[in-house]
Amino acid sequence: MKLTSYLQWQNIQHPVLTEHQTELWLRYVPSSNPDISGNKLLKLKYQLEQALQQKYQGLLTFGGAFSNHLVATAAAAAENNLKSVGIVRGEEADINNPTLAICQSYGMRLIPVSRAYYQSRYLQETLQQLKGQFPDYLHIPEGGTCEAAVRGVSELDMRNTPAGPASLLICAVGSGGTVAGVIHGAETTAVLGIAVVKDQSLPDKIKQLLPSERHWPEWRLVQALHQPRYGRFDQELWQFCQSFAHQGLQLEPIYTGKALYSVFELIKRGEIPPGSRLSFFHTGGLQALKGLAYRGLISPTADSEQ
Ligand SMILES: Cc1ncc(COP(=O)(O)O)c(C=O)c1O
After folding, report:
1. Rounded distance from Cα 19 to ligand 1 centre (Å)
2. For 28-73, where are the E strands, in sequence order?
3. Would you call 188 helix, strand, or coil by DSSP?
4. Which CATH class is domain 39-144?
């Protein structure tokens, strides 16, 4: 089956799922542009709306040299006739790598900065300086995460799979905005976030996006069980990602594949009980495959060659 950009749900088959009587449904966000896919479309929705309503000239944001968010911001800006600026982590960043090349193809102006400067991206002083340099640009935080992003993600109904209500909603967690949005939209369904970065402050960052006056469904965060450091993966994890290709499911090993690997481990350990119906948010990020192939970390796949 060929995955189309308008697919909303996909039921995944796997011997582990059969053995543990678990249903797995992947939730997609329909998008006509693969460069603004998954959580990005939802995270940017209200920030774009604000930029257009308040007549900003462009969007300014931050990301690493292979950032999915930079690509999505560049593409979203171009689609809406806005300019874009990307502050890139590391002066040494190769601006011709596939990710940054896509950004430039959308007209994004890239500014590679030292890691020390990048570290200061949340400081008022840095933000003021950038505001002075780019006065008519809406500043979007790294990863797009902010209250508006959470609102956008919360609108995705992950609860009602085609087979009936899910018992658990799951997504990969980086900066925490996506899982906060999933929790906002979960009503009474439990939520599981799989952290693919090692960040002790992540639970607090997520809590800050969940106002204390509301009653939230049960949610928990689990560190990725295999290759927990951000960006790391091995052959086993990459083979796991590829093993779903024949079902039309494309995964990359940094976010979606790594998170799904942990889901399978939790099923095998009985920590996700038999009889569960899982709704897993496919957060996109497939452009990263091109970057991994470019760096020789995977052999080119049909998708990474596109
Ligand atoms: C493909 C993909 N999945 C999941 C995430 C995690 O989202 P968040 O940073 O909102 O936790 C990201 C990061 O933006 C991502 O690029």
Report:
1. 30
2. 58-63
3. coil
4. alpha beta
